[in-house]
TrEMBL record:
DNA-binding listed as a keyword: yes
Pfam family, one: ParB_C
GO MF annotations, alphabetized: DNA binding
Official protein name in the record: ParB/RepB/Spo0J family partition protein
The family this protein is said to belong to: Belongs to the ParB family.
One GO-annotated biological process of the protein: chromosome segregation
Keyword presence, DNA-binding: yes
Organism per entry: Hymenobacter busanensis
InterPro entries: Chromosome_partition/occlusion, HTH_ParB/Spo0J, ParB/RepB/Spo0J, ParB/Sulfiredoxin_sf, ParB_dimer_C, ParB_N
Domain spans labelled ParB-like N-terminal: 50-140
Alphabetized UniProt keyword annotations: Chromosome partition, DNA-binding
Gene3D superfamilies cross-referenced by the UniProt entry: 1.10.10.2830, 3.90.1530.30
Amino acid sequence: MSEKHEEKTAPTPLPKRRVGGLGRGLNALIEGSYEKKGERLVPHPANSVGLIPVEQIEANPYQPRTHFDQDALQELAESIRIQGIIQPVTVRQTGPAAYQLISGERRLQASKLAGLETIPAYIRKADDQQMLEMALIENIQRENLNAIEIALSYQRLVSECNLKQEELGDRVGKNRSTVTNYLRLLKLPPAIQIGLRDTLISMGHARALLSVEDGQQQLNLFERIVAEDMSVRRVEQLVRQGLSPAPKATPGVQPQGEQPVVPPAEIKRAERHLSDRFGSRVQVKPTAQGRGEIRIAFDSAEDMHRILNILQPA
């Protein structure tokens, strides 16, 4: 056999891969999970993992999370730039080149911020009800939802997926009493639910407030908890004692030794205003004595100097 003939029949060398595949997360492992059709890369059928263009994935209409911390999202995006995607998102296929997200909203958003064109995804078959159930359960188990988002997710599983509380507990790995405690949070007045969502109060505070039957008394105690920075134990003591009221002030006269209490709504407005002003997380922490502190978060020495420059007088 001639050398010329050997050159014609020699196998085509495989394309060179970029060194450092481990840093690219799952992309390095599943680049071969595509079928080449013309100029398009087509992932394997349902119940497989493949790389999908992020522009082909639409948001999950059943997403239980309503708020994403932008700073945490930026941190995740930076991690993805360096390490790649470690865990695939979950999608269902809705068309030839269209997918709908089931779970992994934060990873998808962060991947877009990181400039990724494709993302590893686990493709599943699911109808609308199955998708709702999977989305809610996977988010409850894997995401850091706040207490109200968890409660709303539990309520949707009960009402829209026709799950009993015992079945729900089995699905999410919680006992029935835990599920019941979360569902009870939805009986609190909206203002208190918002306070719990925004971490003005804790789950322990909310559970103590549920022991108060009168809605107005709940609201009054909620305002005292925020204004006086009460501990859960102190709130529980007040509830057991029958809600001993705070001293009533004569109109126009401030009780001796006490200063005006800043309303919770005004605190939140101040935090939002200052966060926008400094481009960082800001917390306003008042006390019952009219004092308090303002905390401005920074991510690095450079970020600290940036904030100090803003504080310098013009």
